[in-house]
Amino acid sequence: MKRFSFTGFSSDAAAAVPPRAAMQNHHPKEHLYKILVIGDLGVGKTSIIKRYVHQNFSPNYRATIGVDFALKVLSLEQETVRLQLWDIAGQERFGNMTRVYYREAMGAFIVFDVTRPSTFEAVTKWKEDLDAKLTLSNGKHVSTVLLANKCDQGQDVLTNNGLKMEQFCQENGFVGWFETSAKENINIEEAAQCLVKHIVASENDAVHLEASDTVSPQLESNRSGSCSSCFRY
């Protein structure tokens, strides 16, 4: 098991507020969310995590063995959110360890490679496996975002029709989907914002989310994707 060191946050504004408020600023509410990153072998799960956490990309492919970990710390208003990203090897769906890996997760990314249709065909199997082995304390499935990765390698017929992709996501219980590229840093941040938003809403037992300026169905990259509040269940 890897050990992590956490970086603290401070604010100069604390000196200008009353002592009680300053104390609250020094002790913000914290959340730790376990996030699964799953999908077939070679779809780019590790590259997505490295881009999101470390802002780098390596073209050298190395298959993940078992499971790897990374930590991302976010500051949201007066709250600190720590995302523990679990990078699960593509072949693990065929073993019995996924139940252990999935335990206590609050959200998930399922990734496929737009250049390999077989990895999209496997998406429903990954989602079924996830839903069968993991539920929240309220009995609902965890929030899951679908990532159509490697979109920098050309437009794919699978994601060419956004309405069909949205229909697929609604039928299979995804809260949203994004075309992504770890290499070109396309929609990685937006997808993570979408997932965190839904996790927080789920934790607060929110039924619907209001439209947000941070996550929008129309992205500046001009690549496809959407996040619900767009999807209504």
UniProtKB/TrEMBL annotation:
<dbReference type="GO" id="GO:0045335">
    <property type="term" value="C:phagocytic vesicle"/>
</dbReference>
<dbReference type="Pfam" id="PF00071">
    <property type="entry name" value="Ras"/>
</dbReference>
<dbReference type="GO" id="GO:0005802">
    <property type="term" value="C:trans-Golgi network"/>
</dbReference>
<dbReference type="GO" id="GO:0003924">
    <property type="term" value="F:GTPase activity"/>
</dbReference>
<dbReference type="InterPro" id="IPR001806">
    <property type="entry name" value="Small_GTPase"/>
</dbReference>
<comment type="function">
    <text>The small GTPases Rab are key regulators in vesicle trafficking.</text>
</comment>
<dbReference type="GO" id="GO:0005764">
    <property type="term" value="C:lysosome"/>
</dbReference>
<dbReference type="GO" id="GO:0005525">
    <property type="term" value="F:GTP binding"/>
</dbReference>
<keyword id="KW-0342">GTP-binding</keyword>
<dbReference type="InterPro" id="IPR027417">
    <property type="entry name" value="P-loop_NTPase"/>
</dbReference>
<keyword id="KW-0547">Nucleotide-binding</keyword>
<feature type="region of interest" description="Disordered">
    <location>
        <begin position="214"/>
        <end position="233"/>
    </location>
</feature>
<protein>
    <recommendedName>
        <fullName>Ras-related protein Rab</fullName>
    </recommendedName>
</protein>
<keyword id="KW-0636">Prenylation</keyword>
<dbReference type="GO" id="GO:0016020">
    <property type="term" value="C:membrane"/>
</dbReference>
<keyword id="KW-0449">Lipoprotein</keyword>
<dbReference type="InterPro" id="IPR005225">
    <property type="entry name" value="Small_GTP-bd"/>
</dbReference>
<keyword id="KW-0472">Membrane</keyword>
<dbReference type="GO" id="GO:0005770">
    <property type="term" value="C:late endosome"/>
</dbReference>
<dbReference type="GO" id="GO:0008333">
    <property type="term" value="P:endosome to lysosome transport"/>
</dbReference>
<dbReference type="GO" id="GO:0090385">
    <property type="term" value="P:phagosome-lysosome fusion"/>
</dbReference>
<dbReference type="InterPro" id="IPR030697">
    <property type="entry name" value="Rab29/Rab38/Rab32"/>
</dbReference>
<comment type="similarity">
    <text>Belongs to the small GTPase superfamily. Rab family.</text>
</comment>
